[in-house]
Amino acid sequence: MFLNKFSLVAATVAVASGVALQGANAQTVVKVDGSSTVFPLTEKAAELFQKENPNIRVTVGVSGTGAGFRKFCNGETDISNASRPILKREMEACRAKGINYIELPIAYDALAVVVNPQNTWATNLTTAELKAIWEPGSKINNWSQVRQGFPNVPLRLFSPGAASGTFDYFTEAINGRAKAQRTDVTPSEDDNVLVQGVIRDRGAMAYFGLAYYEENKARLRAVQVNGVVPSSENARNGRYTPLSRPLFIYVNAEASKRPEVSRFVSFYARRGEFIASAVGYVPLPKSAYPRILSKYTSGKTGTAFGGENQVGVTIEQILAKDLQN
Predict the structure, then answer these.
(1) In 62, 120, 188, 225, which residue has its Cα 20 to 30 A from 270's Cα atom?
(2) Looking at the domain that runs over 11-109+246-322, which CATH code has it been given?
(3) Fold match, 11-109+246-322 / 110-236
(4) pTM for the structure as a whole
(5) Radius of gyration of the chain measured on its C-alpha atoms
């Protein structure tokens, strides 16, 4: 069971090492920050890593993908968790500070659109209906406006905050432009706030990562999108589109030369399939993780995505792009 990813306070995971680092001045801290969605993966990796590695400490912050990249491109962290590829403005920020990075896909996730269990009408929504609800300037504030036959129940919306990669991905996938969303919603980087908002209101709706829905499915109901149930299997087989997405870590290339960073990232890549499954995410194919490790050890820097978000891309396409030789 992973720690709740909704905490905005940096989680510090003490990690221990079986082999002491050499040199009196050796750095023994690995600093990670970024996506709340990727946090459970990295937290689990750190938890497992400590069993094998004394004298290394991994600190894992949860400031959101965008805020995490700001810290990373300013040289404040060694690794950035990201629920989308690095964007052009972030690439430019890293370039300005001389930060080169190694981009590593680590798992796959899906976003769940959730409603209150008492909502018995919105069992399946189309992407067009979701757009009509969430797009900038939308005046839909009652379920009766969404579809003929839906009841006269006020609609209240809860969403991740603007620093979240989940927010970026959903708005681009549904509204056609990242960060383009109506403003009369309740935002929070704390997924538990979104859950509580939906639980307390029969007419509420929210969206967040599938893994977090799975943690709370006894209290929520997930909506089918275009007739497809949000699930790991449907994310893996490409049916749950456009709300499936890749998850990444970005490693500072200079920091990767430090033994404690190299050990941690190598461990993460080797155990990636187990880690993803352990926290309820969709693992990449078994054959992908040796390729991820090989890419990391080769020191190949840069992004395979040209500074653009990737909406609806399948696992196979991710591997073809990001792990190409």
Answers:
(1) 62
(2) 3.40.190.10
(3) yes
(4) 0.71
(5) 20
Q: Which residue has the tokens 């919105």?
A: 122
Q: What is the three-state SS of 77-141?
A: CCEEEECCCCCHHHHHHHHHCCCCEEEEEEEEEEEEEEECCCCCCCCEECHHHHHHHHCCCCCCC
CATH class of 110-236: alpha beta
Strands 124-125 and 224-225, bridge-based pairing: parallel
Q: What is the pLDDT along the chain (325 residues), one digit of tens a residue?
A: 334 443 433 444 443 333 344 443 444 899 999 998 899 899 999 999 988 998 899 999 999 899 999 999 999 999 999 988 999 999 999 999 999 999 999 998 889 999 999 999 999 999 999 999 999 999 999 999 999 999 999 999 999 998 787 898 899 889 988 889 999 999 998 889 999 999 999 999 999 988 889 899 999 999 999 999 999 888 877 789 899 888 999 999 999 999 999 999 999 999 999 999 888 788 888 888 999 999 999 999 999 887 766 566 665 666 676 666 5
